Amino acid sequence: MAELQSVCDVVIFGGHGDLAFRKLMPALYHLTDTGYLNSKSRIITVTRVEMTFEDHRKLVKEKLKEFLKENVFDEAKFKVFEKQLEVVVIEFDDNSSYEGLSKLLKQEPDRERINYLSTASDFFSTICTSLNEWNLISPKSRVVLEKPIGRDLESARLINKGVLQYFDESQIYRIDHYLGKDTVQNIMALRFSNRFFMPLWDANNIDHVQITVAENVGVEGRWGYYDEYGAMRDMIQNHLMQLLCLVAMEAPCSLDADSVRDEKVKVLRSLRKMTPRDIVEKTVRAQYTKGVSDGETVPNYTDGVPNSTTETFAALRVDIDNWRWNGVPFYLR
């Protein structure tokens, strides 16, 4: 079946969260508008908050107006888009609450299903278990895991093991949405397609590298999530490490996912391990206090989480011990 003719169900767990409204719904709106998502496909929001379809429709419309670029939202196009919308209320850790989703999905049992888990990673295994118990996983099913996956190596392995009980590795997509940014996608083209930069991209010509992710978006109500993870887990170990790999890796033999991943892994394996002294001297963790961003007053982080010691700013120096980058410090913040 041709790509544009394929009809699928996109199931967004945590579909009323910040990521879903800020990134996923606008992306799906664009895909529908450009014909890359068949208009008969369904976009099923799974939320834990009781809500009627009409309230859901109004909320999606409101958020699209807020997060789409200026003058992009179009009433006529939304009339088409809203026909794809569905909403289901589920308590992720209550298996019996999946009955409504089961009835909805089994109306179209032969469709491809994309299960996008835009939730805390603590729920990943639980959601997959319930999908399996309600017979909602087929060879055509996919599962998307949004970063961060776990709090540390042990929990990440446990989550992956739980998901792999029900999905084959080829059905699992571990997503870092930051890699979808245009500037990030252009890094490889800048490096490997530019004859001017290619011979200069090494320790002989570069003194140091700075990678800065400067955000103007605060916690914005995500106090519970952010206080558990902090900037180091939420930004450094995924977004900035991915950027580090793209900047420092060797040219892959092809642009397929496995080849690019293999080159990234080589960079990570070349990172110099930090000693306790290095952690003191080469890392910084801090909290933003009350101030002004883009002309608007923003609160102190501890206004939402009193007495919290979770960092909202993180920076560190890392070193890559290979022939290309020996002696070149990388500063991430």
TrEMBL record:
E.C. designation(s): 1.1.1.49
Source superkingdom: Bacteria
Pathway: Carbohydrate degradation; pentose phosphate pathway; D-ribulose 5-phosphate from D-glucose 6-phosphate (oxidative stage): step 1/3
Assigned keywords, A-Z: Carbohydrate metabolism, Glucose metabolism, NADP, Oxidoreductase
A biological-process GO annotation: pentose-phosphate shunt, oxidative branch
Entries under InterPro entries matching the protein: G6P_DH, G6P_DH_C, G6P_DH_NAD-bd, NAD(P)-bd_dom_sf
GO function term, MF aspect, one: glucose-6-phosphate dehydrogenase activity
Domain Glucose-6-phosphate dehydrogenase C-terminal: 188-333
GO terms for cellular component: cytosol
Location of the Glucose-6-phosphate dehydrogenase NAD-binding domain: 11-186
One Pfam family, short name: G6PD_C
Designated name of the protein: Glucose-6-phosphate 1-dehydrogenase (EC)
Organism encoding this protein: uncultured Sulfurovum sp
